[in-house]
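Reviewer 2 asked us to include a model.

Predict the structure of this chain.
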Amino acid sequence: MRPTLEGLKQEGIEYRGFLFVGLMKVGEDPYVIEYNVRMGDPETQVVFPRLGPDMLEWMVGAAQGQLPQGAPWVDPRYAVTTVVCSEGYPSEPKTGAMMQWPNEPGDDRYCFHAGTAWKENQVVNSGGRVMATTALDPELDQAVLKSRNLASAVDFDGAFYRSDIGDDLL
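Predicted model (structure tokens):
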């Protein structure tokens, strides 16, 4: 990120917005796999639950070029997101299956719809990446477990998810 910020400054570019670098850990080394000027999916689902109620003030301030004083509040808990996919993803996902998912409101568990649609008074899967299940916890292993438990409770024909998300961090 530092070379990007220095390059923007050298070019006299006043950038306002997100800079996102997607990293993948290979062995012990981080590798850049994507570089964006927006928040992506599912990255947003793991980042935004940790951002506090003042985040809107920070976003408006950034757009207006006047950031608030201090630092934004960030939830200190770990956040883990597991993506539930449709059978056949990524090449030819099977869609149209009626869905059920956990209804456990709280400030530590979220189910984000991604590839879903409303059809005949039912929610159905309508894409490859169907739902992102995010969980927060002070302990990383518990955040991983909670996210996987949420993912396992998302039910539709052909649903699957990776059961190794977060393992490299434990």
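The chain has two domains: 2-40+54-64, 78-169. Residues 2-40+54-64 form one domain. We have added this to the supplementary material.
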